[in-house]
Amino acid sequence: MANHELVLGQNPDLALGQNPHPHDLVMTPTHNIGLRSRHTLGLGHSHHNLGLGHNHENDHDHDLGLGQTHDHDLGLGQTHDHDHDIGLSHHHDNGLVLGHTNELALGQSHEPDSEAHNLGLSDNHELTLAEQHELDENIDHLTMDPAQELALQTAHDMSNNQLVVAQNTPVIQSRVLAVNLDYQLVVGQEFSDVKSCRRAIRDAAIACHFEIQTVKSDKTRFTAKCAADGCPWRIHAAKLPGVPTFTIRTINESHSCSGISHLGHQQASVQWVANSVEERLRENPHYKPKEILEEIHRMHGITLSYKQAWRGKERIMAAVRGSFEEGYRLLPQYCEQVVRTNPGSIATVYGDPEDNCFRRLFISYYASIYGFVNACRPLIGLDRTLLKSKYLGTLLLATGFDGDGALFPLAFGVVDEETDENWIWFLSELHALLEANTENMPRLTILSDRRKGIVDGVDFNFPTAFHGFCMRHLSESFRKEFNNTMLVNLLWEAAHALTVIEFEGKILEIEEISQEAAYWIRHRPPRLWATAYFEGTRYGHLTANIVESLNSWLLEASGLPIIQMMESIRRQLMTWFNERREASMQWSTILVPSAERRVSEAIERARGYQVGRANEAEFEVVSPHEGTNIVDIRNRCCLCRGWQLYGLPCAHGVAALVSCRQNVHRYTESCFTVATYRKTYSQTIHPIPDKSLWGELVDGSSGVENRIEKLINPPKSLRPPGRPRKKRVRPEDKGRVKRVVHCSRCNQTGHFRTTCAAPI
């Protein structure tokens, strides 16, 4: 057999060669051996030995024998005075050469002159075992499969130490079957019950990357084996007599398989995912399924589906916040707690008489009712948002506006679906609570999208109210129809116009751009949306804008179980009431900040106006750019209509008041004063105890009987799978005729030029 030499050129002197002492392995503190492979490694037997020299001051000969029956030499040459030889033998003639640049060549050839390949070693010649393999004095066999690759990894990345694998065979990634000490199973180990026993064995299989197959499992014993064919690993646990404790009786820890080769794991169930991320989810309920997948892959090295992560999260969240089904079942008790903790509040739930499936829920807190009736503007906005929970449903909202212009939630309704009938019911409940809490029903102004159910409900319950379009809904429909930003801006300017002349001027501008757009606008009665024609008082609010304003926290709440959603809303209201109450205590002005700014601006503008007095109440105000306006301070009105529409003196009114030395602040609506604002939030929304205490807080046994009779089941309709549509369909869009498009190429209708298929 041909002998091939291995030469290592480097400052430290190292020689590896044959040693007359058989089966000896010497490793110095600075020399380690690293092999990256998933195959068994063994040091050769016979008369070959391994020696690594450490002392470079003396001239010693150390031998290394690697192989089985043949005697091939592997030499490491140095440029120093000390020579050490290595003998390497294999089934084939293999040469290993390391030069001055620490290049190691591994040849795989039957010919003596096999090609050299480079493999770099670091200065201290460290070799470490990869994939948790250990090398000790007891290893006496080293076998190498020529079809696989041998990689020696150095401890440091050096520029001259480059690793080159002398093989064309691709590297196959696979797991190594290793024992994880944290999940080690031993005979005599005890568990509290059979579930804990099964859980521990499952966790051990996942940690050590092999799958198990249950052989027998009942209340007294549990037996499992490795799922790989022919693998001897097996475990048996049994119940101790008289106690639920389980103990491991026998275990065969040896594996003949190499573990699982796929990236998933049969034991990685939904419950296992839930247990793995339970602590993290309790700390951060916003932990996303995608993040769960990433953490499990990083911690356990397995890849799961998105659905598994989502179901695991839902299982934990159901334990934390309660299930969706439990939320509906506990609604009667929850309503009782709302009324008990917040006296004067209204909380009612209705189910289907036939099967008790949920239909409607109405809640309004007394603090909101009191604040709206006694201190808010007589203006209500109506809106709704779809629930994003497990079951279909719609959240209906009725909000007022406080003196500073902020939203003031008044009542909430949850219905199984948005229908005209449910809107009429919601408005009837709203009318009932206002009628019960005020002697004289105020003449309200209501803003909505004017769908049929809302119009019918307003006409029936609030016959004297002014019901107008919410301009946000109207402008979105207009934008869908014409998709022209300039036209949309002109529509808003027409809506804000205070006088009929100004309004008609904006409509003419729209007509010059698009006669179709002007035709579309004129078919929407201006008395329902235009400020110049609207008969009610909107105080400058053209939109309800409820959902968009509350979207930051309402969007998250809409995906919770129904009781959790209502509790999230209650906590937000409780926080708002407290924060706004405390903030108002710091104000030292007569009017709220927004009204104070508006009056200050009007006073500044009025400085250049000329005022003529006709009598004690009527004034003529002349301005350089606006001409002449007539002001009546007794009736608080001006020809420009600004005073009437906003409830605050306009610049003309301010000029008239200042000229007769009247206090401007006394001529503002009472809702804009700080005193009234404090009255708005004077009441408190009280917290509701945990559901575990509800049974103890119910007085008498009759409460239990009533709760049994009022058992509410979830709605019949589940939310369909898939991503919900982002844009909601407006009532005015339903049934509308689409625009007729024309092709400029063939002069036909129904398509554009870009999609025309007619022959030339």
Would you give an account of this structure?
There is one protein chain. The chain has 21 helices and 23 strands. It is of the alpha+beta class. It has a seven-stranded mixed β-sheet with strand order 13-14-17-16-15-18-19, with helices on both faces. The N and C termini lie far apart (84 Å). The N terminus is likely disordered.
Question: Features of this protein?
Answer:
single chain; 760 residues; alpha+beta; seven-stranded mixed β-sheet; five-stranded antiparallel β-sheet; 31% helix; elongated; disordered N terminus; zinc
What's this model, at a glance?
By secondary structure, the chain is α+β, with helices and mostly antiparallel strands. It contains 21 helices and 23 strands.
| Average pLDDT metric | 75
Q: Which regions have little confidence, pLDDT < 50, spanning 5+ residues?
A: 1-178, 700-708, 731-735
Helix content: 25-40%
Number of strands: 23
Report the portion of residues in β strands: 5-15%
- Please identify the oligomeric state: single chain
The biggest beta sheet is recorded as: 7 strands, mixed
Rg calc = 42 Å
Present the secondary structure layout.
Elements: E1 25-26, E2 50-51, E3 65-66, E4 74-76, E5 84-88, E6 96-98, E7 104-106, E8 190-191, H1 194-207, E9 212-217, E10 221-226, E11 234-239, E12 246-252, H2 270-283, H3 289-300, H4 306-321, H5 324-329, H6 331-341, E13 346-351, E14 358-364, H7 366-375, E15 379-386, E16 394-401, E17 407-415, H8 420-436, E18 445-448, H9 452-461, E19 466-469, H10 471-482, H11 485-496, H12 500-513, H13 515-522, H14 546-557, H15 562-584, H16 593-605, E20 610-613, E21 618-623, E22 627-632, E23 637-638, H17 642-646, H18 651-659, H19 674-680, H20 694-697, H21 702-709
Parallel strand pairs: 1-2, 3-5, 15-18, 18-19
Antiparallel strand pairs: 4-5, 6-7, 8-12, 9-10, 10-11, 11-12, 13-14, 14-17, 15-16, 16-17, 20-21, 21-22, 22-23
Helix pairs in contact: 2-4, 3-4, 7-19, 8-9, 10-11, 11-12, 12-13, 16-18
